């Protein structure tokens, strides 16, 4: 049987979270990212006869880590978590930081420290497949709220994402794109808005998004090439512009 390319399955949990299951069909193995709840992921692994080879965590919030202990009790595997969250995540056995590489099966992730949403937040970049697992740093047409970090940190984290190849697929952990579209439409109607994206591109984006959501399909993964042209937080040209946007979004 010919080798098949690894794939990413999205497992919906809670109201708008996704758990990512990276599947290597050649070996019937799976790697899981941010299991905030365990039962759906565990059932998926069992139903598809997949062996869990690892769990990657982006940050310490419970909707990303709450299912880890239960999951690995049924499917033992190493757990990788941000070193800066060592005091907040008790279920990991391998701690990662900027510059580290995580090798699991056919995957080789580069660890990027992207503070802002939280201080210890990391993302996992897989250069071979051009996949970025961004946790809560970047969303469709939006970005994560700042719970611990500064505006400067969050802005710089987005600048790092902007430097990745345009063909990158961004796997963000929340289905927030529709509500962020409402914000973008409001923003485009402001007379004094300093951020202007490509209006035709945004209209196309909106049509495709609404069509997918009507069919109950996810907006994730995001195409970085498109987000670079329509996501106001990626279009911000300075910390001041980013701060203006983030404060405005917080009020919505």
Describe this protein's structure.
- The chain has 252 residues and is an alpha/beta fold.
- It has a single domain, classed as Metallo-beta-lactamase, Chain A (4-Layer Sandwich).
- 33% of the residues lie in helices and 25% in strands.
- It contains nine helices and 14 strands.
- The strands form three sheets. The protein has a six-stranded mixed sheet with strand order 1-2-3-4-5-6, with helices on one face. The protein has a six-stranded mixed sheet with strand order 7-8-9-10-13-14. Strands 11-12 form a two-stranded antiparallel sheet.
- Helix 4 packs across helix 9 and helix 5 (177-188) packs antiparallel against helix 6 (199-214).
Brief summary of the model shown:
This protein has helices at 39-47, 62-65, 68-74, 151-162, 177-188, 199-214, 224-230, 232-235, 239-250; strands at 7-13, 17-24, 29-33, 51-56, 79-82, 94-96, 101-104, 107-113, 122-126, 131-135, 138-139, 142-143, 169-172, 222-223. With 252 residues, it is α/β, with parallel strands linked by helices. The strands form three sheets. A six-stranded mixed sheet has the order 1-2-3-4-5-6, covered by helices on one side.
> Quick one: CATH superfamily?
Ribonuclease Z/Hydroxyacylglutathione hydrolase-like
If you average the pLDDT, what whole number results?
95
Roughly how much helix do the residues carry, as a percent range?
25-40%
Poorly predicted runs are none
Tell me the name of the CATH class.
Answer: Alpha Beta
Q: Can you count the beta strands? A: 14
Fill in the CATH topology: Metallo-beta-lactamase, Chain A
Q: What is the helix/strand order?
A: EEEHEHHEEEEEEEEHEHHEHHH
Question: What's the alpha carbon Rg, rounded to whole Å?
Answer: 18 Å
- Intertermini distance: 52 Å
């Amino acid at each position: 049987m010919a080798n098949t390319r690894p794939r990413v399955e999205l497992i919906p949990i809670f109201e708008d979270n996704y758990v990512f299951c990276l599947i290597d069909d050649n070996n019937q193995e799976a790697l899981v990212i941010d299991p905030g709840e365990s039962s759906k992921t565990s059932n998926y692994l069992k139903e598809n006869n997949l062996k869990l080879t690892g769990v990657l965590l982006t940050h310490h919030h419970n909707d990303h880590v709450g299912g880890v202990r239960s999951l690995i009790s049924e499917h033992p595997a190493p757990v990788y978590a941000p070193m800066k969250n060592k005091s907040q995540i008790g279920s990991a056995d391998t701690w990662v930081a900027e510059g580290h590489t995580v090798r699991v099966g056919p995957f080789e992730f580069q660890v990027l420290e992207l503070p802002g949403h939280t201080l210890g937040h990391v993302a996992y970049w897989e250069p071979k497949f051009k996949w970025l697992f961004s946790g809560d740093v970047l969303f469709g047409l939006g970005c994560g709220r700042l719970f611990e970090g500064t505006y400067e940190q969050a802005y710089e984290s987005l600048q790092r994402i902007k430097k990745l190849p345009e063909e990158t697929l961004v796997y963000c952990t929340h289905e927030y794109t529709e509500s962020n579209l409402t914000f973008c439409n409001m923003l485009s109607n402001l007379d004094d808005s300093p951020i202007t994206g490509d209006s035709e591109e945004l209209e196309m984006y909106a049509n495709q998004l609404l069509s997918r959501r009507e069919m109950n399909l996810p907006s994730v993964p995001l195409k970085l090439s498109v987000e670079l042209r329509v996501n106001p937080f990626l279009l911000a040209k300075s910390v001041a512009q980013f701060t203006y946007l983030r404060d405005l979004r917080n009020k919505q």
